[in-house]
Amino acid sequence: LFKLLAISPAQEVVFPLLKKSACSIEDQLNTFTQHSSYQLSKALISAKAKNNNLLTGGGTKNTYFLECLK
Fold this sequence. Notes:
3 helices, 60% helix, elongated
C-alpha cells in the first residue's frame, strides 16, 4: 500500500474551515493531527497491511502523530 498524505486537500477544504473556527491554534493542530492519523490508520487497515510498514518523510519525526497512529 502506498499512501501519500498530500497537503492540497487540506489547503482546499480543511484549512478554510479551521480559519473560520473559534478554537485555539493548539486545538486546531490537534484536530488535524488526529484526523490525519485516523485516515492513514483506516487506509492501512482496509489494505490489510501487516505490522511492518515503512513510514517516510517529515511526519516520521512527529512523535505525537505516530502515537496517534497506533
